[in-house]
Design goal:
heterodimer, A: 511 residues, alpha+beta, D-Maltodextrin-Binding Protein, domain 2, Dipeptide-binding Protein, domain 1, Dipeptide-binding Protein, domain 3, six-stranded mixed sheet, 13 helices, 27% helix, globular, disordered N terminus, B: 301 residues, 2 domains
Amino acid sequence: MKKYFACFLLLVSAMTALCACEGGTKDPEDNTKGGAVVVGITQDLDSLDPHKAVAAGTREVLYNIFEGLVKSDKDGKLVPAVAESYEISADGTKYTFVLRSGVKFHNGETVTADDVVYSLNRCAGRLETPDPEVQVVAAFSVISDITASKGSDGKDVITVTLSTPNTELIGYFTCNIIPKNYDNQAKSPVGTGPFKFVSYKPMDSLVMERYDDYYGTKAHLQKVTFSISESTDAAFLKLQAGNIDIFPYLTVDQAEQLKDKFNIEVGSMSLVQGLFLNNAVKPFDDVRVRQAVNYAVDKNEILQMLNGGYGTAIGSGMYSTFGLYYDSSLENAYPHDEAKAKQLLQEAGYADGFTFTVKVPSNYTYHVQTAEVLANQLKKVGITMKIELIEWATWLSDVYKGHNCDATIIGLDSQLAPSDILKYYIGGSTKNFINYKSDDFDAKYNEAMATVDTDRKVALYHELQKCLSDDAASVFLQSPSLMVAVAKGLTGYTFYPVYVQDMASVEWATK
Amino acid sequence: MKWIRKGVAVLIAVLALSFVTFLAFQILPGDQAMLKLGTNATPEALEALREEMGLNDPFLVRYGRWLGGVFTGNFGESSNYKMPVTELLWQVLPNTLLLAAISILMILLIAFPLGLLYARFPGSAVDRTGAMLNQTMMAVPAFFLGLLISVVLGLWLRMFSPGAFVSYDESLSGCIVYLIFPALAIALPKAAMTVRFLRSALLTERAKDYVRTARSKGLSENKVLLLHMLPNALPGVRTFIGVIVSEIIAGSIVVEQVFGVNGLGRLLVRSISNRDYNVVQAIVLYIGIVVLLVNSGMESE
């Protein structure tokens, strides 16, 4: 199998080198058609109902159709969307949103306070007959009341009251607003975004069109098609044949081969990618062993091998998008030091090293490749890491839910709330798949979430990251880079710190 | 009477097959509710969804429910695509069947002339070169051949545009033209096998007495080959082709993925990883019936 693969790589690169001479394939007429763009994606959509969509690959597509009360801008700041403004009470127990007037759903209906209350309740699992397929936002469990009223100027006001103070909940109000009296969301979704849904064909494509009644800056493109491929290889062929204009998940090699035909833009995946160690099983129940693994890993090599030098090494469970809350001083907490790793292993009684198995979801080629690089690095200090590829469904039930593994490699994404990315380490939580246990961490986490004062909050989040780093809770590797192929002539492709493919800002440059 | 017996045998085999498939998903790790709700789901939400999807019922109850549906023509709903399984299959099955039809046609068109040619001149230079070519074709993995065709015929020679597949319901002619290329990837290795089988079947006949008799009657070598040897070699070849045909109709997973064909094979893989039981059951049932019917039809009496 390895041999075939090598042959195949060789052949493909040789062939692409030859093809590259042929020049652009884009029909120049396309540029004048008012703009149609095909975006390649490698995952079919798991639901068209935004509250039921779980996969990041689905949410990044639906972002163009739906909006929340607020939405993220390209710097990770929350800006008003369906709400025109918002206010958080000083004690962090009351959120007030003033609705923008005249916002229209794609079916022509005006967005009412009823629709907003319904959407929030649906996301919070507070409807009388909840739909069990709706992914309930766990953070919304602190909501005790959602009411609509009229402001002094006649505008609709939504007031959300919390039972316990939480100053970070605003990050979750990106929860999409959908019409209350519409029950065909899963087949023909209706939202308020800059694009409206046209059609969806399983395993084939989703088509959307510019929504001309959008309240904000209207999209440039007339039509966007998200074309589904089964694998990056299949998508790569489509790219080369000129059937895809934008493709967001290039590997370094692919980017290298495409750079003459496409503009390659580099952003960040905004993930905490890590080699997550099960703190409850031997030998990782010993902090010295976890630290040794940390010292044995060379993050720079990983950045070189997987991202061609792009991406950012991290030292704890957060990445730089979180701004003030992010503690960059930890990035070098465990410099690459094999001697130190060996010494720590000896102290822990593993002078001859040990063997463990890492379970990696096979559908994420990126994590699989990371595993291969890591296995090599750990070998040098005497640790044998066996790689076991498992299906995503198995990962979810075995590793995530069952905590049944020595270690795993995965990327954790997050809402725009610092508590969200750190929720995986709370003692006893079902999300704590690495069985990390620190009373100090738990106490500070709860305090941080409720703290109103920014300075104190920042200090607490820094301490939380320090906890994870000091305890070597896992090996926090990097926030990987994202390489995107964008057809020449297209401008405005924007990276976001959350998983979205924003097509509203993209346009064909005029000739 | 014989047909009734055959029909009953097929029915029993299909029932057993569906039961085993159902059972396989019991053993396979992976929780459908967890897949739908993802990493942020609370245990209560998971439980509620499991209850709603009927996953909490005992295995036999669920199997019985499914089987009852099938007998009344209801294959249930796809949990992933939220549409009736039959509707979903209608979107992909014709694509796969078209692909299969073109592939089978190609196999026959390639295999018979070549097989006859090699058997006509065994040991000659033509035969020896042919054998080498055959060996190569049989050894190439389908995905590699698929990529080769995509790159050479698609990207270099611009005979088609890889990935620009159009479904049969959008444009039948466009669909057929595109499918010629994936069909080639399916047909070449299978044709190579058929050539080899046909050649050796013909050569076995060649040593038999009736061939000598035919020759001694003064028939030309060509006539002996076509009128005497071929009809006698056919039953064996027919069974062999039957196996190939049922394999192809079941959908070529790899080739469909490489060429982006919206077909049964792709749907099957995707439904397995999504634990979309109803779709998998329906597809397995379909494949089972096709294999059984083709085989019992092709079997020499």
